[in-house]
Design goal:
heterodimer; A: about 375 residues; seven-stranded mixed β-sheet; elongated; B: about 290 residues; mainly alpha; two-stranded antiparallel sheet; about 0% strand; Leu-bd (chain A); ABC transporter substrate-binding protein (chain A)
């Protein structure tokens, strides 16, 4: 049997075609693009840095485990925690970078970019924003963090029953997140035998809180709930303590950042978060904690874990899609999520509902001796 | 009692605004340069003081370092940003964009060096005690008021008695005449930037101790400084200082009657009212160019 012979013309044609063959081959090893829309500058940049670190460790694990046939590239866009730059960044991620998966944060910015991702059928995963109306924004918008309605439902009974704090005043940012928490407290407090004795809205850019605290003091609260984000949370806590408020300060998961943990004025403050036991026997959690510590020289916090999960989930789902021979895109990833529902993630098993909201256990934390201590 | 408490809070905020506004007004009045990066001088001074504090320096040494850093930044802006621009075309827009750009670069550099989080110094000076039923005052209030008062008196004496101060006022009125008399307008511009930027440092130090800061705080300070300069009357230093104090007090006592979210809007409401009813400001002076 004679094999195929290559004539001069054939060799010439193959030679001419070579430059075009190379890109076609390269295309198959082009990385998946994971976009991130985090505040990397401005007063909330501390969060952007924390979120990115969590995602970076997840990508490290996806690569180390050879989970996918193609590498994953993290493409970061600066949202500045504002809707307008987020929309610009989201359009770039979808139109230019062809992102397969976008990590989002902040309630207002998430709501601004959700329609763009929805049109492009790109999965958006939120691990930091907690506005209650983020549930069901789009079939392609998922949450791996408990939204504010769940956080308030945990904090209010704890305040009333464990701390006997019935009169609660609220300082909240003039933003969908703040409005959402105001609405939740209005209904949750009376239901649990408490009372919202005052609610004080502050603009996003406000820096001076002494006068606001004077108004808060007038309401004679047992506890003050702070519902803002970024540097403003810390500024409000300092203003409260400096201006004679000795009552309990409480908040939601946004208090789980280093600048509050290390601030003397925040000692004793309470906040809710997802359950995260770094010292337990759960293998993925231990691996995450160890690798995070090794890479960044600090123990991970809840936000780091959330965005680890948000990024790692892409690895789990894309692996399923690849194994089934499908193309990794929004629809195939969503179908894989709905077919599986339960995933082994940092903190334990995460289960998603029909709308893409991860159901998880919650805990109440206290800032004690510059540590976050789970107390309930 | 709420009114008294809000008034005292307003005085402290007003002292900060007055100091920064006076610095901005001095620079703008003397050089006609819209120094948008004045807020950046404030931020730099705040972080230098913070680093010095954390390094265990005595407070006075940290304050001196903060003043020097603010002055150095102001002078560098004059020498290496504004003067080259003015030498070529010197349009308002180019100066504005350049200053704005420098502000963003510095903000990011500070973020990289100091971290993106909220920073403050822990001091009993900012901790309030109840001096009357339901009226809380921190020692920092008196320090802020005394600092502002001493600096304004010193600045007024400098501008009226010292030859360099008189030269600065002359530069504001008629720069051509300055050259005719053989004075260096460049030297006086540098002096205006040095003194104007130095005035931002005490305000920044008070802010670090009371409110805390992050790298983006300069924008807000800048907006208030511009508002105070317009309300006080462009070209008037005492007008800017008085307007800064007035805006701080208005922002605070307005909370007696309006919701807390409107506190900062009050400053700009006052600004609009002046623009409509008294465009020349409180002590407006006729501009010669």
């Amino acid at each position: 049997m004679s094999g195929p012979t290559i004539g001069r013309r054939g060799a010439l044609a193959a030679g001419l075609a070579l430059p075009f063959i190379r890109p076609a081959t390269a295309q198959t090893t082009e990385p998946y693009v994971m976009g991130s829309l985090f505040p990397m500058s401005g007063p909330s940049a501390e969060f952007g840095e924390a979120f990115t670190r969590g995602a970076q460790v997840a990508l490290q694990h996806i690569a180390a485990d050879n989970m996918l046939r193609r590498p994953v590239r993290l493409q970061s866009e600066d949202s500045q925690a504002l809707p307008q730059p987020s929309v610009v960044g989201m359009n770039k991620l979808i139109s230019v970078d062809r992102a397969h998966w976008v990590l989002v944060s902040w309630t207002a910015t998430s709501k601004a970019v959700a329609p763009i991702g929805d049109r492009a059928k790109t999965i958006m995963v939120n691990g930091g924003a907690v506005g209650p109306d983020l549930a069901g924004l789009s079939p392609y918008f998922w949450n791996v963090i408990a939204l504010a309605h769940l956080e308030v439902q945990v904090m209010v009974p704890f305040l009333v029953r464990q701390r006997n704090a019935r009169r609660v005043a609220l300082i909240y940012v003039d933003d969908p997140l703040g409005d959402g928490i105001l609405g939740q407290l209005r209904t949750a407090l009376p239901r649990n035998g408490g009372e919202l004795v005052g609610s004080f809205s502050v603009p996003r850019a406000a820096q001076q809180f002494g006068p606001v605290v004077a108004r808060v003091r007038q309401t004679r609260p047992d506890a003050v709930y702070v519902a803002s984000f970024g540097a403003q949370n810390a500024q409000i806590v300092k203003a409260l303590r400096d201006n004679g408020v000795t009552q309990t300060i409480c908040s939601y998961s946004a208090f789980g950042i280093d600048s509050l943990r290390t601030m003397p004025e925040a000692e004793g403050a309470l906040f809710t978060s997802q359950k995260l036991d770094l010292t337990g026997a759960h293998a993925l959690t231990s691996r995450f904690a160890a690798d995070f510590q090794a890479r960044f020289g600090q123990a991970p916090l809840v936000y780091h874990a959330n965005y680890y999960n948000a990024a790692y989930l892409f690895g789990l789902l894309a692996k399923q899609v690849e194994a089934a021979g499908g193309t990794v895109n929004g629809d195939s990833l969503r179908a894989a999520m709905l077919a599986t529902r339960k995933f082994d993630l940092v903190g334990g098993e995460g289960e998603f509902d029909e709308q893409g909201n991860m159901l998880t256990q919650m805990q109440v934390n206290e800032i004690r001796g510059q540590q976050f201590v789970a107390i309930g | 009692m709420l009114f008294l408490q809000l008034l005292l809070n307003g005085l402290q905020i007003g002292a900060i605004y007055a100091l920064t506004a006076a610095g901005f007004a001095l620079i703008f009045g003397a050089t006609k340069i819209f120094h948008v990066a004045h807020g950046t001088a404030f931020t730099i001074a705040g972080y230098v003081f913070l680093f010095a504090w954390r390094a265990g320096w005595p407070g006075w040494a940290g304050a001196a370092a903060a003043v020097l850093a603010a002055m150095a930044f102001g002078v560098a802006m004059e020498r290496y940003v504004y003067r080259p621009i003015q030498r070529h075309e010197g349009s308002f827009f180019t100066v504005f964009v350049a200053a704005f750009g420098v502000g963003i670069v510095v903000q990011n550099v500070i973020g990289m060096i100091a971290g993106r989080g909220f920073a403050t110094v822990d001091t009993p000076l900012s901790f309030s005690a109840e001096i009357l039923p339901d009226v809380f005052v921190a020692p920092m209030l008196w320090i802020a008021l005394a600092t502002a008062a001493v600096l304004f008196v010193a600045l007024t004496l400098f501008l009226t008695r010292h030859p360099a101060g008189v030269g600065l006022r002359a530069l504001a009125q008629n720069p051509d005449l300055i050259r005719t008399y053989g004075l260096s307008s460049n030297g006086l511009s540098v002096l205006a930037f040095a003194i104007g930027s130095a005035l931002a440092a005490p305000a920044a130090i008070i802010t670090v101790m009371t409110t805390g800061l992050n790298e983006a705080i300069g924008h807000q300070i800048m907006l208030i400084s511009i508002a105070a300069t317009i309300v006080g009357g462009i070209g008037s230093l005492r007008g800017a200082a008085l307007a800064g104090m007035m805006l701080g007090i208005a922002e605070s006592i307005a909370l007696q009657v309006v919701d807390t979210q409107w506190a900062e809007a009050v400053s700009f409401f006052v600004l609009f009212a002046f623009i409509i009813f008294r465009p020349s400001g409180i002590f407006g002076v006729v501009q010669t160019r």
